[in-house]
Amino acid sequence: MGFFSKLVEGLSKTRDNIVSGIDSVFSGFSEIDEDFYEELEEILIMGDVGVKTTEMILDSLRDKVKENHIKKPQECKELLIESIKEQMNLGENSYEFENRKSVILVIGVNGVGKTTSVGKLAGQFKEQGKKVVLAAADTFRAAAIEQLTEWAHRTGSDIIAQSEGSDPAAVIFDAVSAAKARKADVLICDTAGRLHNKKNLMEELKKIDRIIEKEYSDAYRENFIVLDGTTGQNALSQLKEFKDVTNVTGIILTKMDGTAKGGIAVAIQAEYGIPVKYIGVGEQVNDLQKFDSDEFVNALFNVENQTENTEE
């Protein structure tokens, strides 16, 4: 099964939640009036697209309906899809870190699939023939170190780890030294999702940030936050908190195959302007794939990209 098909299948709950509602509005109204827009608004907000993003999408739709002199609701579905794509469009997603010596710091709260995402990324980089070093800097959860060690074995990556409870910043320091000595292409750092309190966690991240900055300044930096698609709007508040202490450069959106709240992907890119870099729709290494917002919207509405079809 190709990834587009997997995405279509993975977004089925979100589709049932959002698209079927939208379709019923299009078929249930005979004219485009305020009630029509209000119904659409409610469905998008309930589908975790978010209030602000929904307003922007519907403002754009209203403009398009006027410009194209459209009278029938059924005729503006294409325009709605276009408006959603426009709000998500951040330009082409950049994966510069694949072409340079780089360090990827992976952050996020516990339970979102952080360590698994680190492992899957390692697997993909190894498939590209890269030398990968993993840093087990989530030292407050014993299972995290074991889990990452397992991923290192499975993917053939090097791992730098210390015992449970040790200083995460010290692990990062050792990992940077190892990455430099072993001429690694990429260093991926797993981090804690929770400490005794939020302030401690954020201070820890700042400390790790400073060490990478000082000891590995010539490496290309990425800070990815892992967000669980099933948490909907809660993912946005997590993003906001982490964004306050570290420069979040990209998002890994996990568990999208089990959620009706997939509209969150639209809200994240539209409201924060931070690109979703990867999207997860399954357990396998290759079920974590690079994110393309147009492809995502096409899969959500289950429409193949017209230009692709004509090229084929």
Structure description:
There is one protein chain. The protein contains 14 helices and eight strands. The protein is α/β, with parallel strands linked by helices and 312 residues long. α11 (233-245) links the parallel β5 (220-228) and β6. α1 (3-10) packs across α13 (293-300). It is elongated.
In short:
The chain has 312 residues and is of the alpha/beta class. It has 2 domains: 89 residues, Four Helix Bundle (Hemerythrin (Met), subunit A), CATH 1.20.120; 205 residues, 3-Layer(aba) Sandwich (Rossmann fold).
- The residue fraction in helices comes out at 40-55%
The number of domains is: 2
Give me the CATH architecture of the largest domain, please: 3-Layer(aba) Sandwich
- C-alpha geometry: elongated
CATH class of the largest domain: Alpha Beta
Order of helices and strands: HHHHHHEHEHEHEHEHEHEEHH
* Strand portion: 5-15%
How would you state the average pLDDT, rounded? 91
| Count of extended strands | 8
Number of helices: 14
Termini, distance in Å?
A: 18 Å
Secondary structure class reads alpha/beta
What can be said about the biggest beta sheet?
Answer: 8 strands, mixed
In the CATH hierarchy, what is the superfamily of the largest domain? P-loop containing nucleotide triphosphate hydrolases
CATH topology of the largest domain: Rossmann fold
Could you list the spans in which at least 5 consecutive residues all have pLDDT below 50?
306-312
Q: Could you give the order of strands across the largest sheet? A: 3-2-4-1-5-6-7-8
Radius of gyration: 21 Å
